[in-house]
Amino acid sequence: MSAIRYLIDPAVADVGFPVQRLLPAAVTPAVGPFVFLDHMGPARFAAATTAGDVRPHPHIGLATVTYLFSGAMMHRDSLGSVQRIEPGAVNLMAAGRGIVHSERVPEDIRAAGAAVEGMQMWLALPKALEDMAPEFLHYPEEVLPQREARGVWLHLLLGEAFGMRSPVRCYSGTLFAAARLGAGTAWSFEPVAVERAVYVVSGALALDGTPVGAGQLAVLEPGATVVLQAGEATRLMLLGGDALDGPRYLHWNFVSSRREAIVAAREAWQNGRFPPVPGEMEFIPLPPSARWR
Question: How many CB atoms lie within 10 A of CB 88?
Fold first, then answer.
């Protein structure tokens, strides 16, 4: 029996920059609390333009996580947070009952022609925290534990695993880690979370003998220890956690266990009742017919 429950190919989209979308997928809406998973870039943006900038937009019921491989982004939100995000850091924003933020490409990154690449994720908040006060937290690379041995480099971003514990706040049981395997390296990935998946950022590997290529997400069977064999230098993301405490609705930028909460959020954004991002005059209008998931 294969240790891979689902092998997911990305849906390619352009949201001002190229993204490969892995979650939600037709076969599964979530892995642990992860209900949305994008691999963005690599992309370069012309100097003295706003190409690639994401104007202010709202969220409810989720926590966003941003982790970059290269380049940088500038985060601003309605709490007054202003934070440059650089490779290796974790940017965590819990929307709770409602927050607005923008994500822009810094001018020095544009001028240098530097590629912006990374992961952006949404974690569904537990039902008890869906209406919490919004908060923003940032963790630089140096406070996040790392370990390297026998051709395996691990950078634990959220949760507790591999003999390490991340300081990043978790709202439910969560696993999120960056990993690199050297060419020819074999590594046993133990069941350190109830639900787990392996995303191949670059390179290629065999997972218990099954090939998994760059851009694919392998969702694993619960409880299985799997052997990852890298035929070449390979970059991975490991993610998962406890199963959600019930189904979630996803609609535009909103996540909730209650459909009526999303309807109310749509009306609030349409009528200008979300708090603004200080200093930002632009915004993304409510799409007339966003798809429910």
Answer: 17
